[in-house]
Automatic annotation (TrEMBL), chains A, B:
Nucleotide-binding keyword on record: no
Domain called HTH lacI-type: residue spans: 43-97
Entry keyword Transcription regulation: yes
Keywords: DNA-binding, Transcription, Transcription regulation
Taxonomic lineage of the native organism: Bacteria, Pseudomonadati, Pseudomonadota, Alphaproteobacteria, Hyphomicrobiales
Protein name in UniProt: LacI family transcriptional regulator
Entries under SUPFAM superfamilies matching the protein: lambda repressor-like DNA-binding domains (SSF47413), Periplasmic binding protein-like I (SSF53822)
Organism from which the protein derives: Aureimonas flava
One of the record's GO molecular function terms: DNA-binding transcription factor activity
Length: 381, 381
DNA sequence: TTGAAAGCGCTAACAC
DNA sequence: GTGTTAGCGCTTTCAA
């Protein structure tokens, strides 16, 4: 199918000789009518060039700004762009110009508000630089991660931000082979040579621990999603460190898994036989929810019977009663940092890999209270 | 910069004559070495063709399946694809073949878990068909919506799913002009000619109303985000209808805005002077949070003092105490329906515009209780 | 400073 | 059934 517009071939001179008015008339008569006839749906650089009476190269130069163009032509080109509502085809400019103005983002699960917020932060960060975002989710599996990555990478994005679905991060090979600059966010991949943007997990854990310790709690249980993730281990290590440094035994931890039902079940089995715990520290979103859900089910009141510290800080944590003491991750800042680092790599920076470590903020609220008495088994029963 | 690989020009015959083994040897010696030398980062269809000893046309035919290819060549091509880890450049095939295998998704705010879930559902739906998702957020403004839409559309996606930031939906013009098939999700644009996937908002409202009415509540307050949105008005209309049909006066409503702080402030001002309300029905996420937050601030207990119905159904609503009675939107199904409709349009369906209306499910939990006594002003004070 | 033209990687139309 | 080739809409030499 032939879709391009056939224009009577005009020399450069004739285009320049013609006045702006007659050029427009000419354009209307020919180009617009032709466009309507062939039902060409999108306007291309050629249409702009015709209307402005310049070559497509000049249009490109005006738009990319990579080459000086005389002021008068600039005006004509911009006018034509506005009149036609022209927007350069991004696939085409990507194809010709190398990497495209997209950044690919891979997260384990968009349903998890933390990852969703991260994507939101990233989107806000990149759009300022004229980039778009293309998202994929691994939904837990390394196989799916690799597969999604492959199709995302097939757009030849300018860069990639990835939250690996596990520490092994086998897909790193896929990414590296593609040559696309990337940064690993949130999760730290063991011994992976890559730029990383994480949170100071150790400090975050330590802050929670200090808080409950300061309130007099000694028998604390940690609700971790899974110890297979290094960032979780780091958070736990921070808690452990705080206890150990005071000569106290390290708190126990439960792996609650990655969904609410599992979390609740596992915690419930634990709490059923538990007599001493006076505080829970959650290390993830579902840890928080699992703890809350279990305590409710067991009829235990927060903070009267047990204190609870949540992880992440969402609006609902402020709204419910009691509002939750929690560790707030600087999601916004993570997005910005990841983009800053990625941007630098895209622009050719080739220093050593960096790990940006952002600080969390501990937000004390009403779900934690001074230690009174330990959980009585008779109550929990 | 010249990046393509210079191969000694070989005739088709010579390629066919060579055995598979010698072809590979040949390839290794020439192509791989050359690729390394020029540091060409990505493998193209040409590389595959060389290694398989076929023409690029054949490679394309094997991969797209649009033309029959002899079994033996299929095997060779697939082998080469696997060995090289070839993934067709999506921008290039889009450029040549028309619309690309991406669907653009525009939502007001990715930070809102409802929209995030919708994007997640969409991502899950489209990837089964080999599509990717490119996201943009309007963050409240019609101007930003139009701007983001323009860049998203510049990728010439196969389709678009949009949740307009307001009912005016001025950007509809931008979209329509691009010729990209689109479906409007969640929000209903007044008098817009487009496929729509929404929820049966009226029924959802009615279900909430029936629930509280059945519990004996008569003095109910509705927490709406803003009545400027038609889906919110529809939800309210459902509630109103239930009351009116029983000969009861329509419940009052408060516009709580779109963030937690505003919501809490406005509701707080209302509740301060309120003596009669015995139940709140929230019509959005922030309505729910605002109500909860205000009641806590005022020291009112749920459901002892006031019953509360939330909108949307998130994990935290099940975890907190009391767990929230709520209207669950079928987000998953919305994503699937939107994609199904869009897919049909992409494939050329040109019937009249449809509005798919999905049913919500009312989930009764412990935040609603039988009407006891109305709120005493002395308590609220 | 500008226009002409090559070519990015691919698909589809066309030869054979 | 397979190879060759013309572009898709751009960016970027290369001439003028």
């Amino acid at each position: 199918m032939r879709r391009s517009i056939e224009l009577p071939r005009r020399s450069a001179e004739s285009a320049c000789d013609r006045s702006a008015r007659s050029r427009k008339t000419f354009f209307r008569k020919n180009v617009l009518r032709e466009r309507a006839r062939v039902r060409k749906p999108v306007v291309s650089i050629k249409d702009v060039a015709s209307l402005a009476g310049v070559s497509i190269g000049t249009v490109s130069n005006v738009l990319t700004g990579k080459r000086a163009v005389k002021a008068e032509l600039q005006v004509r080109v911009r006018g034509a762009v506005a009149e036609l509502g022209y927007e350069p085809d991004r696939s085409a400019s990507r194809l010709r110009g190398g990497r495209g103005r997209v950044v690919a983002v891979m997260v384990p699960d968009l349903t998890n508000p933390f990852f969703a917020s991260l994507v939101a932060a990233l989107e806000a960060a990149v759009r300022g630089d004229g980039y778009d975002i293309i998202v994929g989710t691994s939904n837990g599996g390394p196989a799916e991660e690799a597969a999604r990555l492959a199709t995302l990478l097939a757009w030849r994005p300018g860069g990639l931000v990835v939250v690996p679905c596990d520490d092994a991060f086998a897909s790193a090979a896929v990414i590296r082979r593609s040559g696309v600059p990337f940064v690993v966010a949130d999760r730290v991949a063991d011994g992976i040579d890559a730029d990383q943007v994480t949170v100071d997990n150790r400090a975050a854990g330590a802050a929670s621990a200090e808080h409950v310790l300061g309130l007099g709690h000694r028998d604390v249980v940690v609700a971790a999603s899974t110890m297979a993730l290094r960032n979780i281990r780091e958070r736990y290590a921070g808690i452990e460190g705080a206890f150990l440094s005071r000569g106290l035994p390290a708190p126990r931890h439960i792996e609650v898994g990655l969904d609410l039902e599992t979390a609740t079940d596992r915690l419930d089995a634990f709490v059923r036989d538990e007599c001493r715990t006076s505080a829970f520290i959650a290390l993830t979103n579902f840890g928080t929810l699992g703890v809350l859900s279990t305590l409710r089910r067991r009829g235990l009141r927060v903070p009267d019977d047990v204190s609870v510290i949540g992880f992440d800080d969402y609006a609902w944590m402020r709204a419910v009663s009691p509002p939750l003491s929690a560790v707030r991750q600087p999601v916004e800042a993570m997005g910005q940092a990841a983009w800053a680092r990625l941007r630098a790599r895209i622009d050719g920076a080739d220093g050593p890999f960096e790990r940006v470590r952002l600080e969390c903020e501990f937000v004390p609220r009403a779900s934690t209270a001074a230690f009174g008495k330990p959980l009585g088994c008779e109550r929990a029963a």
